[in-house]
Predict the structure.
Amino acid sequence: MKRCTVGIRRPEERSRPVAGWGQPSVWFPLMATMAAVLSEDNRALLRLIRDRRPKSLTALAELTGRRVPNLLRSLRMMEGYGLAKL
């Protein structure tokens, strides 16, 4: 799992600053969005993926006790911010 730096950018600020050392690699439009995406449940899900390395969504569902569609929804949201890759 790679470390990343997160930043908050106002929704009206469309342009992204140039990426570089010390610059955020993940941008959120609002603090509330960041809190939702990086919730304790989602961070636990990412840690579980890192530690157990499930081979499929079905295996991940068994490990978490969640249904595959719910996992997909969470993972797609995190993928949209660059935190996960399906």
